[in-house]
Amino acid sequence: MSLLDDFLVRAALAGIGVVLAAAPLGCFVVWRRMAYFGDATAHAAILGVALALAFQVSVFSGVLVVSLLMAVTVSGLTNRGYAMDTLLGVLAHSALAFGLVAVSFLQGVRVDLMAYLFGDILAVGRLDLAVIWGGAVLVLGLFWWRWSALLTATLNPDLAYAAGIDPRREQLALTLALALVVAVAIKVVGALLIAAMLIIPAATARPFAATPERMAFAAAAIGALSVLGGLQASLFWDTPTGPSIVCVAALLFALSSGAQVVVHRLRG
């Protein structure tokens, strides 16, 4: 009997694969204040699911294509007369609404919307694992290759220009990475919770990380702890697994915030 025959092992590996990709990306989402951008890309995933089922292609392919289109659209419409939060709000909710309506038109196709909205990590198979870890390797490879350029463009665009780095190109690289993470994560935590797994571990790690690199590693560790804790809580209390993972991440954030307050008072 193979270790991967155990559904809990597959679920844990899938969750860890997602957080390894989401951790460094989530740090950039926090630094760039792109939380709503993550929501918009994740909500577009439901439209990708509907199109994939309609054209009988893999859900991963459909979600990836639509998420990429959303990412490129947002990047292209930036600074075109609309406030960013307004633009992202329109695109996020429109994409989700069109996706849900499109699913209702599918004939002869049984669609478990709850699985796509909130994830179904316990149903992850070997092929899903290969897709998740393949995506994680690509995202981590991007950050290994472009970390310095991405960081410079994020912290000081003027310095980036002086160093020959195009901040818009680095922004596009981040949006493409975000689309890939959304595509591989939809099976684990679902479209409505992907943004939470991007933001919460990074926000939890931020107060205690002295460098950007430490923040990324700490966010990955917090994300992995959230996955394992959420799986355990789901089994113990028979709760939905995807939301349970996010709940554990939120509790860790609350503990982090409380510890930060205590440290400040002790220093004061």
Q: What string, H for helix and E for strand, traces the elements in order? A: HHHHHHHHHHH
Summed up, the domain count is 1
Helix content: over 70%
CATH superfamily: ABC transporter involved in vitamin B12 uptake, BtuC
CATH topology, which one?
ABC transporter involved in vitamin B12 uptake, BtuC
Distance from first to last alpha carbon: 58 Å
Uncertain stretches: none
Strand content: under 5%
Describe the structure.
This protein has 268 residues and is mostly helical. It has a single domain, classed as ABC transporter involved in vitamin B12 uptake, BtuC (Orthogonal Bundle). Helix content is 79%, strand content 0%. It is built from eleven helices and no strands. Helix 1 packs across helix 9. The longest helix has 30 residues. The protein is globular and about 60 Å long. The mean pLDDT is 87.
Can you describe this structure in just a few lines?
The protein is an all-alpha fold and 268 residues long. It has one domain (3-267): Orthogonal Bundle (ABC transporter involved in vitamin B12 uptake, BtuC). It is built from eleven helices and no strands.
Characteristics of this structure?
ABC transporter involved in vitamin B12 uptake, BtuC, mainly alpha, 268 residues
Secondary structure: elements and pairs:
Layout: H1 7-31, H2 35-54, H3 59-77, H4 84-104, H5 113-118, H6 126-155, H7 157-162, H8 167-185, H9 194-205, H10 212-237, H11 241-267
